[in-house]
Structures are given as structure tokens and as C-alpha cells.
# Entry
Amino acid sequence: MTPRALRRIPLNTAASIVFVLAVFPVYWMVLTAFKRTSDIQAETPVFLPASLTLDHFAHAVEADGFWLFWRNSLLVTAGCVLLALVVALGAAFAVARMRWRGRRGFVLMVFIAQVAPWEALLIPMYVIARDADLLDRLGTLTLIYFMVTLPFTIVTLRSFLAAVPAELEEAAQVDGCTRAEAFRRVTLPLLAPGLMATSLFGFITAWNEFAFANMLIIKNQDDRTLPVWLSSFSNVFGTDWGATMAASTLFALPVLILFLVLQGRVAAGMTGGAVKG
# Structure
């Protein structure tokens, strides 16, 4: 064995351990969703069940409110992502292409907002929503998720815009395009990796968020989102783990599918946003 191969053994071992620790909970969730109730309740864990069932998925889909809360989560997530992209594009363009007093301070505040812990905003946001009579509204959740994802979106798109030569837009303007047309026809297509990366980040953040949704949706239970609904997925005999895991698996599918579809562009977007600027 070569010295290089020997040096890679600890790295490969550490990577394998991290991979197992990260993947095993997901594997157990999916496996439990397909297990029969007797295997789930067995004293000895069953890693390879003799038979599988789809009964838990049927129970989850037929449960009261599943499709309603699925719709709520989708509306909030889509609204958050679209708002963040539109506002961040304008802010990133102003920071990367224009020179104005206070630009450095604005960028600094965006970075501070990005690193601030979301949990620290729970109580202030609740007080503001309560005093403004905005509790129990999906629109409030959408605005909060938009606020949480906006700093990351601005920083990433600013990095991509800074990497696109301004001369391309100037050449388009010389050919007769307005500044807005030059941006739309020349620069915007080049920002596709950054748009994909930030969209996926915003989607995952809003789709999985629990704390704000649990605190701000109190009385109107029909406005709950899927994570909040999953936390209360139980019956008079206790938690139905099979149906809960089946619902969790269905809940994770949109993110998984979206990531698989956008995988190449997302990887380029994350890398570009990290090293350019």
C-alpha cells in the first residue's frame, strides 16, 4: 500500500462515519414507514423486515388535514422564495453595480442579519405580530420566512453579479438595449446557478421551519403547516409511529426531488457564492 493510500485511510474512515450518522436517521424513518406495526413495536429493532406494507402511507394521506396543511406549506414556501428572489435581485444589483453613500454599511448589516440566530427573533416577532393583530395568518409566516432567507439570498446573488463583467451590459446598451433590458437579457441568464442555489435554500428553510409556525399559528388550526401538524400526529392510544414516519417521508420528498433536479446548478451556485465577490 502506498503512503498516499495510508494517509487517506483516516480520512475515508471519518467520512464513512459521518455518512452513516447522517444517513441512518433518514434510513430508519423510511424503513419505519414501510414496516408493519408488529415490527415497529417489537422489543428488538428490526433492521431487515420480512415483509413491507403501504398501510401507513394510506393512513397518513387519509388523515384529517394532510392535504390542507400540505397546501399551506407549499403556499408559504413558494411565496417566501419568490419574494426573496425579487427583492434580493434588486438589492444585489444596487450593491454590485451602483455606487451610493451607505453601501458598505448596508452590506455589513446584511452580513450581520445573516449570522444572527433565528431563535433570538422568536419573542420579538411574536410580540410584533400580536400587537399588529397578525397572529394566525399564513401571510405573517411568509413575511417572516422571507425576512430570514433574504440576507443569504442577497449575499449569494451579489457574489454572482460581481463576477459578471459589467462590460457585457454596457455592450448591450451600446447595441440599443436599456439598462433594464441589458440586465434581463445578458446578466440574468448568467445568474441561473445562484438563483437555483438561493431558491433551494429558501425552499428548505421555509418548508422545514417549525418554531415560528408553532408560535404564531395558535387559534386557527387550519392555517398550520406540515411540520406543526406532524408534531401532533397521534391518537388516543399514543403516537402512531408508522403513520408519522410515512407522513414525514412524504414531507421530505419535495425537497429531495427538487434537490435531485437542481443538483448540478445548486453545487455550482454554492461554490460560486462562496468564492466570488
